[in-house]
Recover the amino acids of this structure.
């Protein structure tokens, strides 16, 4: 551990001077005062802030948390969390699908403001997000590609619950013809039996 880094003085955010002193706490945050310009400021560690955001992002895409649950935990709106998570979309932490011979998937797409969508595949039987992918839109090709991949890694899909998107229903029929599709809507639950 480098002791020089631990004892290093905080530089003023206003003038950049290294003549700062501790100046108490306000709202639970440590304050500093610059001896050069007399400016009082808070010191934030940008690295830990990014780590916290990454932890929240992992809870959303790999863990079980929804945007609304994370919103309640953090006090930030779901829309704010979407903006924060957008920064991690270029190199997201991908979950490793767990083989399941009797998989009941819930599939949904979340659209972001900059015209991209995250397709999420949640296995309700083992209570785990099996897979997700960033795409430009919800369509048959994107769903079919993902379902083929999930089939290759050992998932046998018995049923799917979704919002009834037509491209998804067609992709399920093409890749898992024996699977039953459940469509949730404001009017209730519709069931589309799939008979090969």
């Amino acid at each position: 551990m480098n002791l020089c880094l631990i004892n290093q003085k905080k530089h003023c955010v206003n003038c950049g001077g290294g003549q700062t002193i501790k100046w108490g706490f306000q709202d639970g945050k440590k304050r500093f005062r610059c001896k050069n310009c007399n400016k009082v400021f808070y010191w934030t560690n940008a690295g830990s802030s990014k780590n916290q955001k990454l932890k929240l992002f992992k809870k959303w895409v790999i863990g079980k948390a929804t945007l609304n649950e994370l919103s309640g935990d953090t006090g930030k709106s779901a829309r704010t969390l979407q903006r924060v998570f957008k920064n991690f979309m270029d190199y997201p932490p991908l979950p490793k699908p767990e083989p399941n011979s009797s998989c009941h998937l819930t599939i949904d797409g979340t659209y972001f403001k900059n015209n991209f969508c995250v397709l999420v595949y949640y296995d309700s039987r083992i209570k785990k997000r099996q897979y997700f992918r960033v795409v430009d839109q919800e369509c048959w090709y994107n769903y079919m590609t993902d379902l083929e991949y999930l089939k290759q890694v050992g998932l046998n899909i018995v049923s799917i619950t979704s919002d009834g998107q037509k491209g998804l229903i067609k992709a399920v029929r093409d890749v898992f013809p024996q699977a039953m599709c459940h469509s949730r809507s404001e009017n209730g639950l519709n069931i589309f039996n799939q008979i090969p």
